[in-house]
Design brief:
Elements: E1 2-4, H1 13-23, E2 33-35, H2 41-53, E3 60-64, H3 66-75, E4 84-88, H4 94-98, H5 105-114, E5 118-121, E6 124-128, E7 137-139, E8 142-146, H6 147-157, H7 161-166, H8 171-184, E9 188-194, E10 197-204, E11 206-210, E12 214-215, E13 219-220, E14 232-237, H9 242-251, E15 263-268, E16 270-283, E17 286-297, E18 302-305
Parallel strand pairs: 1-2, 1-3, 3-4
Antiparallel strand pairs: 5-18, 6-7, 6-17, 8-11, 8-16, 9-10, 9-16, 11-14, 12-13, 14-15, 16-17
This protein binds adenosine-5'-triphosphate.
Adenosine-5'-triphosphate binds at residues 5-9, 36-41, 64-68, 71, 90-93, 165, 285.
Amino acid sequence: MFIINPVAGSGKGEQVVQNYLVEHPELKGSFKTYVTEYPGHAKELARQVATLYSESIKLLIVVGGDGTMYEVLNGLKDFSGIPLAFIPVGSGNDFARGCAMPLKPTINLHETLHDVSLHPYWAGKYKTDFKHDRHEKLFASSLGFGFDAEVASLANESRAKKWLNKARLKYLVYIYGLILMTFKFKPKKLKLIYDGKERDLTGIWMLTVSNHPYFGGGMKIAPNATINKQTFYITIVHQISKWKLLCLFLTVFFGKHLQLKEVETFQVTDLELTSDQKLTYHADGFTDSCYRCLVRKDPNARLVKRKL
Ligand SMILES: Nc1ncnc2c1ncn2[C@@H]1O[C@H](COP(=O)(O)OP(=O)(O)OP(=O)(O)O)[C@@H](O)[C@H]1O
């Protein structure tokens, strides 16, 4: 079964699948295809098809970007038994990078259907403020608090994003946001509780919680992260000068930012994060804000097509 976001990235998701099915007539009749019609539709579709066909779905193939994967994962919150694959046609595609899958959609689709096996994947679970457990959400790749989330929020709200996305120039919105936020951002005070430790931190620029190394479209924010059942990889950027922040965003693509003394990394099994001020965060690129966030691993392993 395919769930396709026709507007992710430059909008070629539907074409990729159609071309593939035309080139492989032997597959005719083996697939059902659903195309999203509005934001949030991938989550609804995933929940509906899982409810209707949970026993018969052999593989649910998500064709989109990280945002579409996030929606589908949350639609399948109560259906951890449905195997998943991700064909990257978005602009970031970090989930494909984290799973060591090809970034070229046609190659990825071919390998997904022929060569790559299913392996367990443990998503993250988070809930904000004092919401009930039933409002807990899942994230596939990462959660980010502070600077990067404010850049993402600015970019998501930008009216230019839609047409820049079509022209494959969405990164320009992020560069604009990055420069603007470098001057506007006010470092945060955070309280962290994890693995029996309590820490009060000041001057925090950003904190990310990672399931695998990548975020923000190929930045290796947690270079040592490996997909696993128990732990998240936390990266904290403490008080940092503006030029060093720029240096961080250049070196992070190679994972070399860990050499900066302002960058701290460690592993946790769960995390509680509290702030006196409203804190912007993103979950796989979706932005929102909160005062408190509880993060833990989803105890349910989901089968995912991945090489790593
Ligand atoms: N038919 C549609 N019309 C408008 N928006 C849609 C439609 N279907 C899905 N969406 C929305 O498109 C947005 C972008 O999707 P997605 O995040 O997958 O792609 P992307 O932003 O190009 O890639 P990435 O997240 O990897 O950077 C999501 O917020 C999703 O809710």
